[in-house]
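Fold these two proteins, one after the other.
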Amino acid sequence: MASLNVGNLGEYLREQRRSAQLSLRQLADAAGVSNPYLSQIERGLRKPSAEVLQQVAKALRISAETLYVRAGILDAERDRSEVETRAAVLADPTLTGRQKQVLLQIYESFRKENGFGSAEDGEATPGDPVDAPGGAPAAGTAGDSDSDSGPRRTAG
């Protein structure tokens, strides 16, 4: 039995695929998933993993977070500001892929520190500032004024 969110996800994916003028087979090939599996997702019969949604989003050139919300992986109201922040970082053409990844890791570590992050949706890794012993900021974070070797920070 398909949940309402999965059905909405399927309808949304179908609309996005048609807007991109892709056949089901073309999207399946571009996303690296099977044609029957993608068809089942579109019809609301399957709930894809976050990884599959990310692959489909990349193939459609849309935000993976949007698909996560549609699939019920992210709570639309609670996580709206997080989704918008992540989308803004990911959409910035002046940043490299590595810079975007690092920014998102730092962002998630601060959210966790403040009690809002979750282990399953973040990409924070050990060594993030929240993991510093004694609650002290980790090297290279705001509040680290003893070192001049790190990147320069500007107010703002």
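Now the second one:
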Amino acid sequence: MEQSAQQAQQLDHLSAAPEPPFAAFGMPGLGRPPSPAPPEPRPILELAGEDLEDELDALSDWVDDFFLPVYGAEVTTAAPWCLEWQEHDDVVAWLHALWLAYQQHRDPEAGLSGLFVWHRDFLTHAVAAIRAPGGPLSACMTSPDRPAHRLLAGPPPSVRTEVASKQAADERAESDEPTS
């Protein structure tokens, strides 16, 4: 009976899936079955409807709870910020890409240097672009009363252009008048 139990145990062991090589060493990617591929990230500006709202909510949480307290620094004309940053599509796109890279580089599979790589290759460049003195937020904090939170208007059209536009409008008005 004992011999029969040993044979059953040996058959169970032999019929089980083989243990991957190097499993005992705990090396990433070695010794465990490949993990399913994560869903492909889509740029936030390609999303719409509820998908966009959900992603923007998650991004806003990361920006407000992590990014700004750690990397926000003070707001100056050399490093502007906008409380309505979600209204700037280019800033949303930059921050979303930065957040996706952060998620990738803080994953254990990125290794011990993952966050250093994120700082060096992503954070520094993105912050420099977003908060540049002439960047997308440069006019936002110069006047809190400016509701549009956009760069200041460019120069008006030249006098010559205005005169030509007025003449064209007058000619159209004359041609539209009924004749008696």
